[in-house]
């Protein structure tokens, strides 16, 4: 027995037993509260088991009898899918059977599904068909503290539904930080008594280590708050002495310093987006090649929305022996996704946030300083299993200057999609809708104007029929919905369907390995047309399904992303089904000819022009004019826009264009998926929006 080798004789269990999670001790209490009160607010550290365990407890306690389903909403698609995979594994079923998920354009559920993870936006959409969400016995709004736009709207809608289903619907709000009282107060509304003045703050109650339902000082019947005191180890927080010039470089440097100077333990680095993450992963790989072969190795991994399922799985796997894992993540690892084994956190202090400028009508994703609440949450990621360290790549003075909490998305977003949905749900008076935080009037007005110009609302701000109602039902944003619905009158519905599917891929159509960029550009040119990106995307799709026979070889030969192309086929089919439900038939015969680089003419009319006119009828609010220096200005002026390097309009001449979306990278604002149009079309299709001055 002397040379009993521990590591040779034991295999680590695949999963930490769920019974050892902090939430397990609260099981009875939780079930009691959910049984007793319409609303239960669950506050607990990330990793305590809220997302993965609560739905299983509920299922076992009988909340799915008589065929009812438990819904768990997530603000992010990636979280919905990874968590469903995990819970299915724990339950021992295939994803899509008892445990499934549903995100836009991807429904992995079946008649057998009892626990369903879905995005909060999708649940809102379901309310259009099933206004009381009657198939659900329990709806858990997860990650509510993030206050995503859809979460906020969903909360308001659920409050209304609860009034109609006071006895058979249960709502659980789960939140990683301490906004619990706000949520409870919101649901209590005018029915219950106001909070008693002697109420302890939640903070005080939690530090007392209370384990039962907290007497929140709310005597009402509406709900209760329960805190799962997840064990937290101390985390040392370190600041920079002077600000970093480039936080990506600094993050890479810090990771190497940790790797060479600090004891074992994985590293989690918060960056803002995919490009930064890819850069950092690349930099680590290069520098890792110079490590001494016998020294501990380092394995960089990316984590962001849009990773393939296999890529996601690496994140959760233990690193190979003698290897330190370093995960470069977007904000998604702040609370939505828990990774075990993290001992070091590197916090760059930035996050990409949506920001909508009502003056220019442009919504951007901009790297923005985080809030203090975020910084605390990020640091906490290092103390889940042992005492950890958090390296903040900013000064302590900068930390002090951060705002306390992030501004809810509803106060800084384009509200047109949300207002369209609320109207479709029969909520006409937006100003009187019960929002947990009201949106600024300016944003509401701007959204109403846009919807009016698109023809979705009439002079009385009522949803038009059928255009407005159909726009709300289509699973694409209002400008694209309008484009699709006006396509029949331009005789190009089949083509616009394809364009809608292709633009929804978010720029992942072409794909190249290292050092093949030139070849990819050459391949892309084969599909390119003078008019711009939309028709080019159309050509790519046509070639893929005809010449390419939807095969991976064609994609490989043409530097196309096979997965993305396959997704486009599926999205297109789903959109087509919607339109057919509206009684619109899609004539596919015209589009079987790929017509590469030749002008498309049908029945004497220039098909390409019809497509561009149709796009203008939906995207007139995204119009811009090229300036002598090659940049663009949008109509409202002000904003300097650059054609994205992936666009055909990059370094080309144009006059007026419309674009699909705006992206911000560093200090520049880029437009992606750009097509040439004629100025007069703007006045023709959006006379109110472009009142001739
Ligand atoms: O929702 P909450 O943050 O409270 O915790 P959870 O997501 O339910 O996670 C509970 C445990 O499951 C944690 O230890 C996670 O690390 C683990 N987990 C995992 O290993 N893989 C996943 N895909 C999800 C959770
Ligand atoms: Mg969770």
TrEMBL record:
Coiled coil: none annotated. Residues 31-196 form the Helicase ATP-binding domain. One of its GO terms (molecular function) is ATP binding. This is RNA helicase. One of its GO terms (cellular component) is catalytic step 2 spliceosome. InterPro entries: AAA_22 (IPR049945), DEAD-box_helicase_OB_fold (IPR011709), DNA/RNA_helicase_DEAH_CS (IPR002464), HA2_WH (IPR048333), Helicase-assoc_dom (IPR007502), Helicase_ATP-bd (IPR014001), Helicase_C-like (IPR001650), P-loop_NTPase (IPR027417). It comes from Phialocephala subalpina. Keywords: ATP-binding, Helicase, Hydrolase, Nucleotide-binding. Residues 251-426 form the Helicase C-terminal domain. Its EC number is 3.6.4.13.
């Amino acid at each position: 027995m002397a040379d009993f080798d521990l590591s040779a004789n034991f295999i680590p269990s695949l999963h930490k037993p769920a019974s050892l999670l902090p939430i397990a001790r609260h099981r009875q209490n939780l079930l009691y509260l959910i049984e007793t009160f319409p609303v239960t607010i669950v506050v607990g550290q990330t990793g305590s088991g809220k997302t993965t365990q609560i739905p299983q407890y509920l299922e076992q306690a009988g909340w799915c009898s008589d065929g009812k389903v438990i819904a768990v909403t997530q603000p992010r698609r990636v979280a919905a899918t990874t968590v469903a995979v995990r819970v299915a594994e724990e339950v021992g079923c295939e994803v899509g059977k008892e445990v499934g998920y549903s995100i836009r354009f991807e429904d992995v559920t079946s008649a057998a599904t009892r626990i369903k993870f879905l995005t909060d936006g999708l649940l809102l959409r379901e309310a259009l068909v099933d206004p009381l969400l009657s198939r659900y016995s329990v709806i858990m709004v997860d990650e509510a503290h993030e206050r995503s736009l859809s979460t906020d709207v969903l909360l308001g809608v659920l409050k209304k539904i609860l009034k109609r289903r006071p006895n058979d619907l249960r709502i659980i709000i789960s939140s990683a930080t301490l906004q619990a009282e706000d949520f409870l107060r919101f649901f209590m509304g005018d029915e219950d008594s106001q909070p008693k003045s002697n109420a302890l703050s939640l903070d005080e109650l939690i530090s007392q280590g209370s384990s039962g339902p907290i007497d929140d000082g709310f005597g009402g019947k509406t709900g209760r708050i329960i805190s799962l005191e997840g064990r937290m180890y101390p985390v040392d927080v370190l600041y920079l002495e002077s600000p970093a010039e480039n936080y990506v470089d600094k993050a890479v440097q810090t990771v190497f310093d940790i790797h060479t100077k600090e004891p074992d333990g994985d590293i989690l680095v918060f960056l803002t987006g995919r490009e930064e993450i890819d850069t950092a992963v690349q930099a680590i790989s290069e520098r890792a090649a110079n490590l001494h072969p016998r020294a501990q190795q380092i394995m960089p991994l990316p984590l962001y929305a849009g990773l393939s399922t296999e890529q996601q799985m690496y994140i959760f796997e233990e690193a190979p022996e003698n290897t330190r894992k370093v995960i470069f993540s977007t904000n998604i690892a702040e609370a939505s996704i828990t990774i075990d084994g993290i001992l070091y956190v590197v916090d760059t202090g930035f996050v990409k946030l949506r920001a909508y400028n009502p003056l220019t009508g442009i919504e951007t994703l901009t790297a923005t300083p985080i809030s203090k609440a975020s910084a605390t949450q990020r640091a906490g990621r290092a103390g889940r299993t042992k005492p950890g360290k958090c390296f903040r790549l900013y000064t302590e003075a900068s930390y002090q200057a951060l705002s306390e909490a992030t501004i809810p998305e509803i106060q800084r977003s384009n509200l047109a999609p949300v207002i369209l949905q609320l109207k479709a749900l029969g909520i006409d008076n937006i100003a009187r809708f019960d929002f947990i935080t009201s949106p600024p009037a300016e944003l509401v007005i701007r959204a109403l104007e846009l919807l009016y110009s698109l023809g979705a609302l009439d002079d009385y701000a009522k949803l038009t029929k059928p255009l407005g109602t159909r726009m709300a039902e289509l699973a694409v944003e209002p400008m694209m919905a309008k484009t699709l619905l006006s396509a029949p009158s331009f005789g190009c519905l089949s083509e616009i369907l394809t364009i809608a599917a292709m633009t929804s891929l978010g720029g992942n159509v072409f794909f190249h390995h290292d050092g093949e960029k030139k070849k990819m550009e050459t391949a892309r040119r084969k599909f390119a047309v003078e008019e711009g990106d939309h028709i080019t995307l159309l050509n790519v799709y046509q070639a893929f399904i005809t010449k390419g026979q939807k095969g991976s070889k064609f994609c490989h030969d043409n530097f196309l992303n096979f997965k993305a192309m396959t997704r486009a086929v599926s999205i297109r089919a789903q959109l087509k089904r919607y339109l057919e439900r509206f009684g619109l038939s899609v004539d596919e015969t015209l589009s079987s000819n790929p017509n590469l680089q030749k002008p498309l003419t049908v029945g004497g009319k220039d098909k390409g022009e019809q497509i561009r006119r149709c796009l203008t009828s939906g995207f007139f609010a995204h119009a811009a004019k090229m300036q002598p220096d090659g940049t663009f200005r949008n109509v409202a002026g002000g904003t300097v826009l650059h054609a994205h390097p992936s666009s055909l309009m990059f370094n080309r001449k144009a006059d007026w264009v419309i674009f699909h979306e705006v992206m911000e990278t560093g200090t520049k604002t880029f437009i992606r998926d750009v097509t040439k149009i004629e100025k007069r079309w703007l006045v023709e299709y959006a006379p109110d929006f472009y009142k001739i001055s």
